[in-house]
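Retro notes - structure team

What went well: the batch runner handled both jobs without manual restarts.
What didn't: labels got mixed up in the shared folder, which is why I'm recording both outputs here explicitly, each with its sequence directly above its tokens.

Job 1
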Amino acid sequence: MKRTAFLMFLFITIIMAILTGSSFAVTYGETRKRVLVVYDNPNLLNRDYSGLANDFSVILSEQLGHFNTEVEVVMENEYKEGMLEGYQYIFYLSLREKYSVNQVLLQDIANTARTVIWYGGGIEELLNANKNIPLKFRGRSKTYHLVEYNKETFNLGQNAGINLLVEPLSEEVITYGRVSDGKGVYPLIANWKNYWFMSGLDTSGVKYLVFSDVLHEIFGEYHSEYRKVYLRIEDVSPLRSPKNLMEIADYLYSKKIPFIIALIPAYINPETGVEVSITDKPEVVKAVGYMVERGGTVVLHGYTHQHYKEETGEGFEFWDAFEDRPLNVNYADYVRERVLKGIEICRENGLYPLAFEPPHYAMAQDGYRELKKYFSTVIGQLQTTDRRFITASLPYEIRNTKRFNRFLPESLGYVAEDGSFGVNEILKNAGKMLLVRDAVTGVFFHSFMDKAYLKQIVEGLESMGYVFADLEKEDNWVKIGDYNIRSTAKGDIIYEGPLLKKEKIKSGIKEEEKNPHFTEV
């Protein structure tokens, strides 16, 4: 009887994964893979300001949340003999040009049967320590600007960065992708038995995307091979034009395209003294409600999207933009207060956010830990450090990491008002993302821009085969104070918490909202 119940549960789980468009393999009952990330640390601040802009150890540790992994991160100088024995996979990140590899670490890696992924410099030291590896180091080069992968060729030009060239000495070496200067050709990624080597130093471009795709081979995990994009209407504040919002909703509804409404509940302009919430603008609330009826899903985009002397929409909220450092606040109290105020205003107006998007994607590391308490889902880009404001675009959805329960990345950009970035750049980025078999990305659009741009973006992404994802038809939850909001794969939104004054109770059962997919509990 128990076996029958289990098989039925497993069958339903698989069917639900298919129906909800999950890109994740069913891992019910599987033990998470233990991963150790070791990175060099000669001078983190200088490395931040080099061409490798971000702390790759943070990017990688979060990115691996796309797979069924449990990740630990240590600096190279903290590594102790035998430490890798507790792990199945060891990533070594060497982003420096000088210094020798920690000899204790080097000997452990050279003699292990565990899977090793060597990313960056010092590969010649490993090849000397383990002469069985059939690769020959040919040096560093900045002239190898052509990258080939899956029959696609990209000319990186001045953005090629450094390649660490290795020559395979055996047919047993499996290669993924190639780098070339038009004459010589070397593998971008080489694999021999339990050793993997990534030659192209990159944390955001084409070579990084190839690496992100090949991680599926490294971990041996199957993910559904289609690309999803989340379309956001950005910075919907109390001062936005209701007419523009509704026209956008009508267009997307006519195309049967779901979208996200990045809502800022309150507007503040310290210079003019203007302070207004959506409660003061019933026509905006009506327009947002209209958008929801036409396939929109509300996401809380901060509370005021500003701090100190900044104007809403222009300023930061969870980062000190003037000093370029975390705010001088207790983030536990500050984040809770801002989120709670935002949720309360939304609730007052019959709106139910299902996720959070940090304003300008800026968030101190302590802030991420607080958001994780309240939101199942965060949208945007990853701020990798508290040393300065800088973000990274991840190539796919991640779950159960140090910073997030679930993270939906944005990497395509938006149409800039000054024309510095437009539709062509967005579609170019989307084309690169096709390198990743199960890419998840996002694009956003401001309602005051010409809607012709939006149509070009939508049609361009459709022609590439992207599927527009519906956040409301995914499992999300928001829990803070007395408020509990969640959505289901059927597109239902379920709310538990305080009633509005206008709501009534009949026979002890709370009346449902007009939305047939909405339920009060």
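Job 2
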Amino acid sequence: MLRALKTDCKNVARKAGVWSLRQYLGFALKTTRWTFRVNEQAWPLLTSQNGQTAVVAFWHEILPLTPALWWWAEPQNPHIRLRVLISRNRDGRMIADVVAPWRIWSIAGSSDSKGKNKGGAAALRRMRASLRNATLVAITPDGPRGPRRQAQQGTLALAKLAGKPIVLVGATCTGIRLKTWDKMIFPLPFGRGTMACAPPIDMQRHNQEEGSGGETFTQKLEHALDNMMHLAQQPSSMSSPAGYSQERVALSPLSLMPSRVWQAAATVLSPALPFFLRWRQTKGKEIPSRVREKMGFPSRSRGTANLIWFHAASVGETVSILPLVSACLAQKSDFQVLVTTGTVTAARLLAQRLAHPRVVHQFIPLDVPRWGKRFLDYWQPKAAVFTESELWPNMLGLCHTRNIPVMLVNGRMSASSFKGWRRMGRVARRMLERFAWVSARSDEDAQRLKQLGATKLLETGDLKTAAPPLPVDEAELARLKERLAGRRIFAAVSTHQGEEQQIAQAAKLIRRDYPDVLVLVIPRHPERGADLSVMLGYVPRRGAGQIPTEDDLLWVCDTLGELGLFFRLASCVFIGNSLPGVLGGGGGHNPFEPARLDCAISSGPLVQNFTDAFAHMATGITIVNTAQDLAAWVRDMFANPAKRQQLADNVQRIATANADLPERLAKHILAQIW
């Protein structure tokens, strides 16, 4: 017990020391007036323009000053990433902990000595992978223990292995020289400092000239680094050499939280949110045993493998990412996937449609900073993939702060959402500009996202057009076909309050010409099934195990995950949340799922959430405005099977045109990690 207490005290003391050192170093560097002398050829490499990377080398003595170089480079490119080689000893780990909140991430390892492996070979491989994946790598040629200003072979080996140039950096500032082996410069507040960055060393050219006599590469490297130190020590009033730009700047760590107001509001409201979640439990919108997941507490074991996090808000988004998740799992076998959703129905659908040993589901925490930190601390994703319009400022800011690559797939930005985000333009820009990339659903969505701040857009493409046909229980399909044999079946899918009465009215009109008709009413939210059955006149419910008799006109199909069954039973389908009078203003639903299963499709005119999809399918989808219009369309489909088939063929061809999109996006996702 005493030993555990001593360990706890040491940990607390270490954390306090790291925090104090970080606060002082940050204060000293922020209050220093900096001058940057940067070679014109080095600038695009140091700021990683167009994904360029380089090995950044500097003497170990200026290590405390180098965060200023990062603070200068990072605002010039939202996508820049940096890793620094540190030793695996106690001092190296402390340095890594001090600078990590500034998004300066470490790779631990150093050269073997006296037969003891210190991870040098593994670190070299990780640095090479980082350089090839658009990440800068910083290294001290004389570190970690000298001799002072004598370059070792690691810098040359890394640059050769990765095929990347080397940028040499010198620096000085008002400070004190510590009595260490490297005579380290420790900055003092309110002083002056200078950074000097040399032209890059082209390794291809060096390889061609190697062996031609004269100085060795390490000697050239030492002389060049000494020259940069000398240039940094020259007074700022002196002009820089030809080919160098000179600027004076005030620096500070870049804040990556998109909105301090949003952050503060969420923190203030957080004590009331558990009561809100409890209220949702009473409405059946939360699972009591898992409600703590919405506060960031895990309910499943993480495992030890690398993890990719996918987030989909509800059923539609979950369905769209299923082929993408499957493609990632197929392309790489040594990682696991965390899928988060916001709704219970989406969670149940995921369990039905993607039962995989490497897939874990959790509910996403509400956008409270403390809860988000708890979530990320536990799951530690290597990358995050968000879907459609799921843009939560605090969670995205936390991901950016931790240098987690964030991607947006099927990016959607409706006209109304675009207007709302434009009012918070600064927040939107700070969220979107740091996405590793954005794949928009359509060209129109891409343009809106770009105007809001997205800087790297991949090809557009709707994942809903790439999903396979919905699955079905073949035995249940055969049983229902036998029970309902001889009946004409029409399905109204994803219906909402305010339009189901109109569907019932249309059903009665259809029955005048086709007495054998059966209308499937499939509510968007299955929990409404019992109330909907009563409202429609106590009609049978699939959720209660009831099968319609020959006299029943309507059948409420209030089960989850059986759309594939209903679309195979019906010859024509109406897509709900689209008729005038629908509660909530409508917006439509995904037309691709019935299109893939040979259904003729109609919809109301309120399809603003899927404008692009309906525009692409305009030749095959019929728009109806009233119950009378809907009834007339269904009668036409029953009376003209050839016409019905032609319309179904038109939409099916469009709905299956983008089958390879998940594989292409999966490669882009995995490239952010491996």
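One thing worth noting from job 2: Residues 501 and 536 are 7 Å apart (CA to CA).
We'll revisit the folder naming next retro.
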